[in-house]
TrEMBL record:
<dbReference type="GO" id="GO:0004794">
    <property type="term" value="F:threonine deaminase activity"/>
</dbReference>
<dbReference type="GO" id="GO:0009088">
    <property type="term" value="P:threonine biosynthetic process"/>
</dbReference>
<dbReference type="InterPro" id="IPR036052">
    <property type="entry name" value="TrpB-like_PALP_sf"/>
</dbReference>
<dbReference type="InterPro" id="IPR000634">
    <property type="entry name" value="Ser/Thr_deHydtase_PyrdxlP-BS"/>
</dbReference>
<dbReference type="InterPro" id="IPR026260">
    <property type="entry name" value="Thr_Synthase_bac/arc"/>
</dbReference>
<dbReference type="Pfam" id="PF00291">
    <property type="entry name" value="PALP"/>
</dbReference>
<dbReference type="GO" id="GO:0006565">
    <property type="term" value="P:L-serine catabolic process"/>
</dbReference>
<comment type="similarity">
    <text>Belongs to the threonine synthase family.</text>
</comment>
<feature type="binding site">
    <location>
        <position position="356"/>
    </location>
    <ligand>
        <name>pyridoxal 5'-phosphate</name>
    </ligand>
</feature>
<comment type="pathway">
    <text>Amino-acid biosynthesis; L-threonine biosynthesis; L-threonine from L-aspartate: step 5/5.</text>
</comment>
<dbReference type="InterPro" id="IPR050147">
    <property type="entry name" value="Ser/Thr_Dehydratase"/>
</dbReference>
<feature type="modified residue" description="N6-(pyridoxal phosphate)lysine">
    <location>
        <position position="92"/>
    </location>
</feature>
<comment type="function">
    <text>Catalyzes the gamma-elimination of phosphate from L-phosphohomoserine and the beta-addition of water to produce L-threonine.</text>
</comment>
<keyword id="KW-0456">Lyase</keyword>
<feature type="binding site">
    <location>
        <position position="118"/>
    </location>
    <ligand>
        <name>pyridoxal 5'-phosphate</name>
    </ligand>
</feature>
<dbReference type="GO" id="GO:0009097">
    <property type="term" value="P:isoleucine biosynthetic process"/>
</dbReference>
<dbReference type="GO" id="GO:0006567">
    <property type="term" value="P:L-threonine catabolic process"/>
</dbReference>
Length: 391
């Protein structure tokens, strides 16, 4: 493993989460393996245990992973990787089962995480499962109702922080630096990303290597993890080539897009990120170095989409494809449509849009915004008589 800031290298050590020398972001080396995926037994994330860096004597599991890859009935060669079917309704479960197992191995009793909501719900569930106490730092008045309800239901301790997610994360990192008694579950924890890379293995087993993968980007851990998964398959000689990774951000929360478009080597943070898609309302993505690495290495790109495009994509997915996702998840599909409409993607390309979380996470946005976005989609009637008159 090595530090992306000071570039020092370290022996693989599961207790390291940030660089012990400079506090920077740590990257785990590629896991090279010649095991054919078809020889692996079981299902879900832990099926790929031999391909994960680290040692997991206690494998905490709620049946995460093995999510459906749904073929579009409209766009040829487009597939949706629907992560909403994970135990707590988002892809976070893939990483959380591994990170919480790591906490158990290291002997921790409590965990801490800053979250826009889904990480909180996932950390709460997996901590409960592992017998750990979870402390959750949440931006005050800014978390979707479904996610709060999940965290409370699982018995986590909630701490509201002013100043949005970015300040919650700064507080969580500070707490970890000063008090090592709480195990951090945010995505700067490189062991968590090991679990998230299994999405690529599943896609590969289903359809081989796609040409493009579209991923909504907040802190940028997931797009990196998915890239790392495909990269390891290629380096191990199990696959040929990797997909072009496209990160999609909301227009007023898009520091990665700005950096990629302007070829910047340093990220300029967005101070007050704004978007209806609360899961990607992030202005200071902690994993930005990894995100840019994944995008540039794969010859991918970064695109921003407006809230209106996000909501329209959410409604289209639900009404045309039958797939229900939260707004942040629809960003990947909105980004795909944008590039498609601009003629930048070949019709024959094999594309995967990662749909990161379930619609039930954020019912308020659906009722207040999503279903009103397309007037021809208005669908409630005032009386039964109105309905009968139509037929
Ligand atoms: C966490 C999350 C994201 C962003 O993932 P990052 O790894 O932070 O880039 C996107 N969509 C949903 C639904 C999420 O929960
Ligand atoms: Zn360092």
């Amino acid at each position: 493993m090595h530090c992306l800031d000071c570039k020092r290298e370290f022996e693989l050590d599961q207790s390291l989460l940030l660089c012990p020398e400079c506090g920077g972001l740590l990257e785990l080396g590629f896991v090279i393996n010649n095991i054919q995926l078809t020889q692996l037994k079981g299902r879900g994330v832990w099926k790929y245990a031999p391909l994960l860096a680290g040692d997991y004597p206690f494998k905490v599991s709620l049946g995460e992973g093995s999510t459906p890859l749904i073929r579009s009935r409209v766009y040829p060669n487009l597939y949706y990787k629907f992560e909403g079917t994970n135990p707590t309704g988002s892809f976070k479960d893939r990483g959380m089962c591994v990170a919480v197992s790591s906490a158990l191995k290291l002997g921790y009793k409590s965990v801490i995480v800053a979250s826009t909501g889904n990480t909180a719900a996932s950390a709460a569930a997996y901590s409960a499962r592992a017998g750990l106490q979870a402390y959750l730092l949440l931006p005050a008045n800014n978390v979707a109702k479904g996610k709060i309800a999940q965290a409370l239901l699982h018995g986590a301790k909630l701490i509201e922080v002013s100043g949005g997610f970015d300040s919650a994360l700064e507080n969580a990192i500070q707490l970890y630096r000063n008090k090592r008694t709480l195990y951090p579950l945010n995505s700067y924890n490189p062991w968590r990303l090991e679990g998230q890379k299994t999405l690529s293995f599943e896609v590969f087993e289903d359809i081989g290597v796609p040409d493009y993968v579209f991923v909504p980007v907040g802190n940028g851990g997931n797009i990196y993890a998915i890239w790392k998964g495909f990269k390891e398959l290629a380096i191990s000689g199990l696959s040929c080539g990797i997909p072009r990774m496209f990160g999609v951000q909301a227009k007023d929360a898009s520091p990665i897009v700005r950096a990629i478009e302007n070829n910047l080597s340093e990220l300029r943070f967005v101070e007050s990120p704004q978007t209806i898609a609360s899961a990607i309302r992030i202005g200071k993505p902690v994993n930005w170095k990894k995100t840019i690495k994944a995008i540039t290495d794969s010859h991918g790109g970064a695109i921003s989409v407006s809230d209106e495009e996000i909501l329209k994509a959410q409604v289209e997915l639900a009404r045309v494809e039958g797939v229900e996702v939260e707004p942040a998840s629809a960003a990947s599909f909105a980004g795909y449509k944008k590039l498609m409409n601009e003629g930048k993607i070949d019709q024959n390309s094999k594309v995967v849009c990662v749909l990161t979380g379930h619609a039930l996470k954020d019912p308020e946005t659906i009722i207040q915004e999503s279903i009103k976005i397309e007037s021809q989609f208005a669908s409630t009637f005032n009386s039964l008589d109105e309905v009968f008159k139509m037929f």
